[in-house]
């Protein structure tokens, strides 16, 4: 889609007279233009709305505009909220309610009733907020002066989430092969996912990929291998295996682009016609912003694509909790996957190596090997609870790997979950979190909570305040409440 924009809609009413409304418009336009200059997306000023018809028209326009990723509302004066009902009923885009006022300070020496009548955001926004709550409409509320740095710092992440949620309605996931046999958590209701998120998840046979591979020319493989050599450390003499992964990358990209897909899955149980499981090829495509899910896991593939949109494709990868270090006081989780961890999370220069895989029955595949870096991060899992989706967010702290692992040729990150290893693991399991996750240094828990609210799904956040008995109560209440929706 085109670069996303956001509508800035200011509410008022005709009670105040023409001169006051002109002043409101000047103030509103100034705020919109200021925000547009410092936020990651363009903020488009819309004329001040003063009647139900005007409100309905501008919100209808926002819903119909494919480039509009959300609406920012603000009540400069007092806008009776019954005027907003019909417009809000048909609005299909995310909403942020900016609770601000034009003047930062009270005009101590000059304030009079004319000023008070014109500047009524303090209670105008309360009237506006009520109608959202009364109608049960999820929205983001940000309070503070519009020139305050902290306000922009809160609006900007919401914008990225809103844009990702709107773009996600066009997300197409290609399943090359089916789900890994007998596995439960990677399955789910694809029809429900399309209804809820707009995600289209459809199957393509491995033969379609093989056909694309047969069309890849030697010169294109040569050029891509040169790119590998310039960007990474090639730590193998088996260049034929590297070249095969280059061929896979070119064919996969061609197949995905031909069908408008920005995410895909494969499985080591369905490799007919392939000599290697895509390893380096999948890492490279993730590095370019594609979503990927192993073993047919379309939910993690779509979530990876979504979170890459939110992060600007920075510091975000497929991950899996692989094994634990249980030394008392130093407990940690080693995250990795057989082959496919995205180099955007690398803390060291990736090395291309070729090693036997030990699963799938194919030739040793080339892959990138590296360690992640220290820092705060989150692990995210989307699961199908049967009739509803649940998003699980775990706050983690990535740490340096205490020792080398010379015989483990995979990309990996080590982290400690919040609030501690045992509570974090127990809470994750109680919530039903999957073994495949999206790991991100750059996406925050608040952003993912905003995303869950925008798309209207249950969200569980495991963090430094989590206690197991409270979590059990939360899950029990969620079960009751979400089944009533």
The shape, in one word, is elongated
CA-CA gap between termini: 32 Å
Q: Structural class of the secondary structure composition?
A: alpha/beta
Strand order of the largest sheet: 11-12-17-16-15-18
Strand content: 15-25%
Q: Compute the gyration radius: what is it?
A: 25 Å
Largest sheet: 6 strands, antiparallel, barrel
Oligomer: single chain
Number of H/I helices: 15
* Count of individual beta strands: 19
Helix content percent band: 25-40%
Please state the average pLDDT score.
95
Low-confidence stretches: none
Notes on the protein architecture:
The protein is of the alpha/beta class and 485 residues long. The chain is built from 15 helices and 19 strands. It has helices at residues 18-38, 52-64, 85-90, 113-118, 121-135, 149-167, 190-197, 206-214, 218-231, 239-258, 280-287, 298-311, 421-431, 445-455, 468-484, and strands at residues 5-11, 42-45, 68-75, 95-99, 140-143, 172-176, 200-204, 233-234, 263-265, 291-293, 316-325, 332-336, 351-354, 366-369, 375-384, 389-399, 412-417, 436-440, 458-462. It is elongated, with a radius of gyration of 25 Å. The model has no long low-confidence stretch (mean pLDDT 95).
